[in-house]
Automatic annotation (TrEMBL), chain A:
Keywords for the protein's UniProt record, in alphabetical order: Amino-acid transport, Cell membrane, Membrane, Transmembrane, Transmembrane helix, Transport
Organism this protein belongs to: Bradyrhizobium uaiense
InterPro entries associated with the record: ABC_transp_permease, BCAA_transport_permease
Spans traversing the lipid bilayer: 15-36, 43-59, 65-84, 96-117, 137-156, 185-204, 224-246, 258-276
Protein name: Branched-chain amino acid ABC transporter permease
Topology versus the membrane: Multi-pass membrane protein
CDD domains linked: TM_PBP1_LivH_like
GO molecular function: transmembrane transporter activity
Recorded family membership: Belongs to the binding-protein-dependent transport system permease family. LivHM subfamily.
TrEMBL record, chain B:
Superkingdom of source: Bacteria
InterPro entries the record matches: Leu-bd (IPR028081), Peripla_BP_I (IPR028082), Urea_ABC_transptr_substrate-bd (IPR019968)
SUPFAM superfamilies: Periplasmic binding protein-like I (SSF53822)
Domain Leucine-binding protein: 30-368
Name of this protein: Urea ABC transporter substrate-binding protein
Signal peptide from the UniProt entry: 1-26
Keyword Lyase listed: no
Family according to the record: Belongs to the leucine-binding protein family.
Keywords for this protein: Signal
NCBIfam families hit by this protein: urea_ABC_arch (TIGR03669)
Alphabetized Pfam families for the sequence: Peripla_BP_6
Gene3D superfamilies registered for this protein in UniProt: 3.40.50.2300
Keyword Signal on entry: yes
Length: 288, 412
């Protein structure tokens, strides 16, 4: 019995981690900043490739993963400076620009790195409960997802930067009038968003096949989580991930992956119909 | 007239003569070969060797004088794994470029998208993948292995060696669905039991739940017919969770070269039946591998699709030269005579007149803990017999249909 219970928790944790890690970066870039970043998957891919490249050079996996996230963050800030900055008032154009960027990046990676890269393998470690065996690394992913949420809470709620950033997102002109350097705030926020995308890729790199289009497997989940979560990263994305993870896990377990995917997307349609502003619109209102 | 002048004139005549032949040859337009292979998108890692195999064969054939003295012009388009693009590019090659032959397609979905378009023309179409079998269509020549060559050999061996309970993980489209049907039929004949079947949407990359479903069902072995880079993540995740079950497949190792792409021992205990895998160690195979790697030094693995794509051009050459024509009807007369054979790197392969599928020498291979590949059993040459047995006879009637164990020709 306890084996069954743990297995339910493990499956929930697994889907939850996948949703949070793939959506956290987008929650900042899209949810807060309003930039429809179609290249989100490519930042994830960037994190994965940098991780594998560094591990192949002999860098220990955890350090490679952190460096990969930092790299994705720096590249994100460069992209923000060169491209995204010009589209803050034109969200639909930002969609086109970042989509174009995504196509250029995947095709260039295909030409430069090739169609497939040899994987590095998941870190050793599995444990057994009842008749089931589990991979320890999947629990590390869950821990990382919780840590990311905690980190975001601290950055955006407890630091001066967080206060100014939230003010800038709410009313950039007023924040600027009060002395906030809004350009820099946007740049850093975008960088944090892409660093989190890179972290997602870095964390999933050992468990997946690396191909230039790998980001695509994360993008649908990340967008639906952010869209039904709404504008607030903590009060939107996290509950959205819990909600979607429960639906998907239950359906996956009883009816298989196809029904799991259909059911999750069906739930998303229902929520957007009922709550166009996302879950956070309800939760934030209650909180006031 | 001194002998020097006679010699000079003879030389001149000879030069003029060859020049005349040469210009006659140049006036002969090249044969146009239309090729549709994905070299970008989710299946690029499989499609790239297919393009390379075609390029290598074209280069070799052109160097040795072409087909009926005509050079080959290869027109390759990249449909990027998109079936709508397969149709668009197929129409373009057939109607605008007026290719003499169409080759290509990776997934069975792309083949079925192309087939109705090809059927409206008189252009021959070569499909170069192993697949779920059953296509009875006079326009199509299949170069890859089919279930009676792969599943009818592999599944009985797996049952005998590991046990009667199997769990199936299959990609959710026609290839996976029909392959699973084949497995059900063969397992039933063997008195085995399918303890679970899971169909996975393409692009899904997370398998924690699947792994647990498998452990709950307690199978003796797994049939893995999952497709694409995302679904291949299953192997890494199953190894990390210490699932540790024997696996069998019709597409792993020789086609997706997962044993080269994943770190050992993720593919340990995988078994497959194949007509080609790069580890084949015969003089013909080694010579072929040498030529391939000389032209494409960065190739990670020569997979069976790439190998079949290479053979397709030589088979086309053999058919055209025996028919002395590039017309499909004339080529099919050669096939009907049972004389459509080539000496391929695996050995002699022939096209079966009734089904227009290819005979293959099949071997059962196993992957070890260090991802070393060993040959467990050599079945010799196996004919693609199933379509002929159920009543497909393209020498008499063009069904233009795809049959499965549950969809057989109506008896009329």
């Amino acid at each position: 019995m306890s084996a069954e219970l743990f297995s339910v928790f493990y499956q929930f944790a697994d889907v939850f981690a996948f949703l949070i890690l793939s959506a956290a970066g987008l929650a900042i870039v899209f949810g807060m900043m309003g930039v429809i970043n179609m290249a989100h998957g490519e930042f994830i891919m960037c994190g994965a490739y940098v991780t594998v490249g560094l591990v192949n050079l002999g860098v220990p996996l955890p350090i490679a993963q952190i460096l990969a996230a930092v790299t994705a963050g720096i590249i994100g800030m460069i992209v923000e400076f060169l491209i995204v900055r010009r589209f803050y008032k034109r969200p639909l154009d930002s969609l086109l620009a970042t989509w174009g960027l995504s196509l250029i990046v995947t095709q260039s990676m295909l030409l430069i790195v090739g169609s497939a890269v040899r994987g590095i393998g998941t870190p050793e470690g599995s444990f057994a409960i009842g008749g089931y065996t589990f991979s320890t690394y999947r629990l590390v992913l869950f821990g990382a997802a919780v840590a990311v949420l905690a980190g975001l809470y601290i950055i955006f709620m407890k630091t001066r930067f967080g206060v100014v950033a939230r003010a800038t997102m709410q009313n950039a002109a007023m924040a600027k009038a009060l002395g906030a350097r809004t350009g820099r705030i946007y740049s850093i926020s975008f960088g944090i968003g892409t660093a989190l995308a890179g972290l997602c890729g870095a964390l999933y790199a050992p468990t997946m096949t690396l191909i230039p289009t790998m980001g695509a497997t994360f993008v649908v989940e990340s967008f639906v989580t952010v869209v039904i979560g709404g504008a607030n990263v903590l009060l939107g994305t996290a509950p959205a991930a819990v909600f979607l993870a429960m639906i998907r896990m239950a359906l996956n377990a009883s009816y298989g992956q196809i029904i799991g995917q259909i059911g999750m997307l069906f739930a998303v349609i229902l929520i957007i119909r009922v709550l166009p502003e996302g879950l956070s619109s309800v939760l934030v209102r209650r909180g006031r | 007239m001194n002998s020097g002048r006679i010699f000079g004139m003879a030389l001149l005549a000879a030069v003029l003569g060859t020049a005349a032949i040469g210009s006659a040859q140049a006036a002969e337009p090249p044969l146009k070969v239309g090729l549709l292979e994905d070299v970008s998108g989710d299946l690029a890692f499989m499609g790239m060797p297919k393009l390379h195999g075609s390029q290598l064969a074209v280069e070799e054939i052109n160097k040795s004088g072409g087909i009926l003295g005509r050079q080959i012009e290869l027109i390759h388009l990249d449909p990027q794994g998109d079936n709508a693009r397969y149709q668009e590019f197929g129409r373009r090659l057939l109607n605008r470029d007026k290719v003499d032959v169409l080759i290509g397609g990776i997934t069975s979905a792309s083949r079925e998208a192309l087939r109705p378009i090809v059927d409206r023309t008189t252009t021959p179409y070569f499909y170069t993948n192993q697949y779920e079998g059953g296509v009875c269509d006079a326009s199509m020549i299949s170069m890859g292995a089919v279930p009676e060559q792969q599943f009818s050999t592999l599944i009985p061996w797996m049952v005998e060696k590991f046990g009667k309970k199997v769990y199936v993980i299959a990609a959710d489209y026609n290839f996976g669905q029909i392959s699973a049907e084949w497995n059900r039929k063969i397992m039933k004949d063997l008195g085995g039991e399918v303890v679970g079947e899971e169909f996975i949407p393409l692009g899904v990359s997370q398998f924690a739940q699947t792994i647990q479903n498998i452990q709950k069902a307690k199978p003796d072995w797994l049939l893995t017919i999952n497709v694409g880079a995302a679904q291949d993540s299953f192997f890494e995740q199953a190894a990390a969770a210490n699932l540790n079950l024997p696996m069998g497949s019709s597409i792993k190792v020789m086609l997706g070269f997962e044993h080269k792409r994943f770190r050992p021992p993720a593919l340990n205990n995988m078994h497959a039946t194949a007509n080609w895998f790069e580890e084949i160690d015969t003089p013909e195979a080694n010579d072929f591998k040498k030529r391939w790697h000389a032209k494409f030094p960065d190739e990670l693995y020569i997979n069976d699709m790439g190998y079949n794509a290479y053979n397709a051009l030589y088979m086309y050459k053999a058919l055209v030269e025996k028919a002395k024509s590039t017309k499909l009807d004339e080529m099919r007369k050669v096939i009907a005579s049972g004389d459509a054979c080539i000496d391929a790197p695996e050995g002699k392969v022939c096209i079966d007149p009734k089904s227009q599928h290819t005979s293959h020498r099949m071997r059962l291979i196993s992957v070890g803990p260090k991802h070393e590949v060993t040959v467990e059993k050599d079945y010799g040459t196996i004919q693609p017999y199933w379509l002929g047995e159920i009543g497909c006879d393209l020498t008499k009637k063009n069904d233009k249909d795809q049959y499965t164990p549950s969809h057989l020709p109506s008896k009329s």
